[in-house]
Amino acid sequence: MAEKLENFTTAFIEAIAQERKRNVEWAASAVRRSVAIGASEALRRNVVDLIADDTNDLLNKIDGRVVKLARGEVTLRTKGAAVERIPMSWWNRVFAVLADPQIVGLLFLVGLLGIYIEFQNPGLVAPGVLGAVALVLAATALSIIPFNWAGLLLVVAGIGLLIAEVHLSSFGVLFALGLAALCWGAWLVFRVPEASDLSLPFWRAVFPVAAALALVITAVGWSVTRAQARPLYSGVESLCRETGVAESDLAPDGRVRVRGELWNAVAATPVRRGERVEIVGVKDLVLHVRGSAEPREGGGR
Questions:
Q1: For residue 278, which phi and psi values (nearest 5 degrees)?
Q2: Bridge pairing between strands 72-75 and 261-267
Q3: Looking at the predicted structure, is the pLDDT value of residue 106 above 90?
Q4: How many CA atoms lie within 13 A of 286 on its CB side?
């Protein structure tokens, strides 16, 4: 297929060179061997007609030339012609900026992150709005430039696996799969035959984003693991394994003092007033205790 395309392009440019009475041999070499020459050499080899310094110089030099069109020969009258410049509109400038694979990738990730934060913290509004705007801009850009659906789906799946790793205990399996899918999808999303000049550089764009996500997910996972490993510091459940002092005889119920507070308590075995007790459970705001081996108040055992 590559050889066929090369032969077709060579024949096409040779036909143009013959029609314009240019250097046919050099035109074929430009296709087959990718040769290049400077402006003066191109003029000497009959590759170009002339060299102009600027637009006005060009209009003066081509004045009076006869060109051959489909309807016949036409004499150019360009000397002193008015030049009208048509600048790019602001809307086209926006599209020109959006039609960049790196910008599209950044907008897509920012959009998904904003929507995720809004779902995790309903009512913040700002992350959801920014995420929605970013996704709309990314969709607009994808309507301008061609992309690969398989790559886009891989990116979404990779981000989903990375988020799942935060909430599920997979010992890093979901994290590794999500990171691999994200990198593969980002590399693949703009690799389409119709747009070979559009690409997302792996080391300059894909790798830094993947590394940043890996660091963030790792930090979040480490923080969650540390938080789960810590003992409870608040709530009724935090009283378990605490020790207190019996304020009355527990035979089996009575009162104990824990953390400076009085609680109703029940003991499986009798406990005398002033003895240390250990809390083994809490039910309906009643502490279930047992005698502790620690010395009782006043130094006795």
A1: -115, 130
A2: unpaired
A3: no
A4: 10
Average pLDDT score, the chain: 82
CATH 2.40.50.140 spans which residues of the chain?
Answer: 236-291
Please spell the DSSP secondary structure of 224-280, one letter per residue.
Answer: HHHHHHSPP-SSGGGGTT-EEEESS-BSSEEEEEETTEEEEEEESS-B-TT-EEEEE
Query: What does the pLDDT average to over 103-122?
Result: 83
Between CA 286 and CA 290 the distance in angstroms is 13
pLDDT in the model for residue 300? 44
What's the pLDDT tens digit per position in 126-138? 888 999 999 999 8
Cα R_g (the chain), whole angstroms: 39
Architecture of the domain delimited by 236-291: Beta Barrel (2.40)
CA 23/CA 42 separation, integer angstroms: 9
Taking Cα atoms as reference points, which of 120, 223, 133, 213 lies closest to residue 175? 213
